[in-house]
Amino acid sequence: MLMINPADRQLIYFIKGQGQDLSAVENFLNKREYQVHSHYDKNTCLKQIEELKPQYIFICFDRSDGEHEMILQEVYRITQGIVIPYCMGTQIEYITRLDQSQFEFKLYPPISGPAVQRILSKLSKTLNLLDDSVIMNTRPIEPINDQTVRDTFKDFSIANPYEKKNELPKDPTKLNSEQKDNLEDSFHADVKSKLVDLIHQSDHEQFQVDQIFETNQVFVLIIQDKSWTGYLTLASEANIDTQEAFNILNNWVFKNLSPLSIAPNSPSLVLQIPTVNFPEFSKVKSDHSQSFQVDHKEIMISLFSFSPFEVLNTPTENFNYLEVPVEFLKPKLDLPFEVYLFLPENNKFLNYIKLGYPMGDTQIYRLHSRNINHVYAPMQYHDAVLKYKAEFNLHQLIESYNIAIQPKQQSS
Predict the structure, then answer these.
(1) Which CATH number fits domain 177-309: 2.30.30, 3.40.1550, 3.30.720, 3.30.230?
(2) CA 95 to chain centre
(3) Where in the chain do CATH 3.40.1550 domains reside?
(4) What is the mean pLDDT of residues 226-248?
(5) Does pTM surpass 0.70?
(6) Nearest to 299 by CA among 221, 237, 233
(7) pLDDT tens digits for 84-120?
(8) Ramachandran region, residue 49 (left: φ > 0; alpha: ψ -120 to 50; beta: rest)
(9) What is the SS3 assignment for the chain?
(10) CATH top class, domain 6-130
(11) CATH 3.40.50.2300 residue ranges in the chain?
(12) Please, what is the average pLDDT of the chain?
């Protein structure tokens, strides 16, 4: 028999159902390139999985209703291993549970050593096709059929971005002179006076920065109109109620961008940015900015133009995932959303990076080298993707500003 170095064996763990006998399967696999461990007690299984860190975890779905879901959540919490659900029994409720699990790889009865080997071989080929340096977690994403999600995107879209024939424009549109004049003329009545009253009424801490001339935080509204797309930023040394400020600023912008339409409910975010002298940065990089003081505290409002491609989210046709262009992925930064890859040969999405884990330089390079232009995030990360792109865009803009002012600083 071929002798295999224990260090080269792939580690498999079976979370069995009570009374299940997998000895024949385990013996078959142990004689080949695998090392198999198994148990049926949930707590024992989780402890051993955390210690052993197996590449593959087979989870029995022949369990009392709901128990397999609790085990799945715990497994995802403690490991990056690949999860493969299986059934030993042929009862219709177990088979239906397996069918509806949304996993790409799953094992139906009868369970045998060769059947396990075949599914692992198929999975290994898929992994090598995607990236041979990553252990992929095949956590499924349940489809989202909520009509409100679809309606939200129809309200917040340019030229139907979810239709491939109408891709989002990649060139930003600057505010024109008429729009700037309208914003300037209406600022005192529509914004300044109302914000001054709002600041004086604030009786508990909401949003403020210590020093606007050296800030690393701003309040942002994402503005999307047919005539202009970008970010409205608020940097305030005075304590201010962001929800009320949001309503004031949102109405002001859309009154001047689209005077005949009702202002939509624009997303608002508090963003972390590289530390910067915000007034000086805004003078150079913004389309339009306004500032004033309240009790010797500086407040500044700026509008920065970006293209719809840079700002907005594009859902897939079934509205279950969002497209994330690879060019927006920053290496070595923990991602605030799960990353999926699309396999066109079988029309499936596979989990590539778990929530909170970073992508390395090599992984991003391989995506580019294989002409993969988009990765995908499940729809529930809609707000996280918007925020991630906003921080990415403003970070890039501040970096370009810092590079431009370096020669001036050195000469002085």
Answers:
(1) 3.40.1550
(2) 32
(3) 177-309
(4) 87
(5) no
(6) 237
(7) 999 988 888 888 888 877 677 889 988 999 999 998 8
(8) alpha
(9) CCCCCHHHCEEEEEECCCCCCCHHHHHHHHCCCEEEEEECCHHHHHHHHHHHCCCEEEEECCCCCCHHHHHHHHHHHHCCCEEEEECCCCCHHHHHHHHCCCCCCCECCCCCHHHHHHHHHHHHHHHHHHCCCCCCCCCCCCCCCCHHHHHHHHHCCCCCCCCCCCCCCCCCCCCCHHHHHHHHHHHHHHHHHHHHHHHHHCCCCCECCCCHHHEEEEEEEEEECCCCEEEEEEEECCCECHHHHHHHHHHHHHHHHCCCCCCCCCCEEEEEEEEECHHHHHHHHCCEEEEEEECCEEEEEEEEECCHHHHCCEECCCCCEEEEEHHHCCCCCECCCCEEEEECCCCEEEEEECCCCECCHHHHHHHHHCCCCEEEEEHHHHHHHHHHHHHHHHHHHHHHHHHHHHHHHHHC
(10) alpha beta
(11) 6-130
(12) 80
**How does residue 362 score in pLDDT terms, banded at 50, 70 and 90?**
confident
